[in-house]
Amino acid sequence: MEAVKLFFSLVGLLLTFTKYAESRTRLHYVPHGHNMAVQNLFSRFVGSISDKCLTCICMVESRCQAVGCVSVNGTQTCGFYHIKLQYWKDCGSPGGDWMTCAKNYTCATTCVRNYMARYGPVSGCPDTCETYARIHIGGPRGCKNPETIPYWHRVQSYGC
Ligand SMILES: *[C@@H]1O[C@H](CO)[C@@H](O)[C@H](O)[C@H]1NC(C)=O
Ligand SMILES: *[C@@H]1O[C@H](CO)[C@@H](O)[C@H](O)[C@H]1NC(C)=O
């Protein structure tokens, strides 16, 4: 348990550092729109879901409302992002309790961010909203599963 918490603290630190490094890189070495090839190369290594992508997923799942829990084929999914118990465990169990966290926008968003930070970089898929959306619905290897494509199209329809 402590090891898992430590792991996610480290992931958090790493993300903070990467964001800092990224903003520095953009500001000082890669002026906006100046060198798309370098920017694309860099973004492929950052591996964190954008706020915009989170919002689109939240819209598909619940219209980004504080919905409760629903049972889908016998599996309960809860809150803003329709988070399942196993997903919450995989994201490091933030907030201490699955249902409470899933129904709290801040906590649920942290959970989705952690999940993507954990599985995005090892998925073998590019650092794009499509990858994150398909992992959200299909699990760690969801971005390679053709069955998750229609879900991505729904996420896309909110402007992502
Ligand atoms: C529920 O299970 C059935 C049969 O396995 C499947 O066809 C259906 O797509 C599932 N529904 C959802 C929402 O996953
Ligand atoms: C929601 O979650 C955040 C982060 O886990 C926590 O700091 C906050 O107190 C929670 N809000 C409520 C109303 O429980």
UniProtKB/TrEMBL annotation:
SS bond partners: C53-C129, C56-C160, C58-C64, C69-C78, C91-C111, C101-C107, C125-C143
Keyword Disulfide bond carried by entry: yes
Record field: catalytic activity: Hydrolysis of (1->4)-beta-linkages between N-acetylmuramic acid and N-acetyl-D-glucosamine residues in a peptidoglycan and between N-acetyl-D-glucosamine residues in chitodextrins
The enzyme's E.C. designation: 3.2.1.17
Pfam family, one: Destabilase
InterPro entries assigned: Invert_lysozyme, Lysozyme-like_dom_sf
Source domain of life: Eukaryota
GO biological process: defense response to bacterium; killing of cells of another organism
Signal peptide residue numbers: 1-23
Keywords: Antibiotic, Antimicrobial, Bacteriolytic enzyme, Disulfide bond, Glycosidase, Hydrolase, Signal
GO molecular function: lysozyme activity
Protein name listed in UniProt: lysozyme
Organism from which the protein derives: Potamilus streckersoni
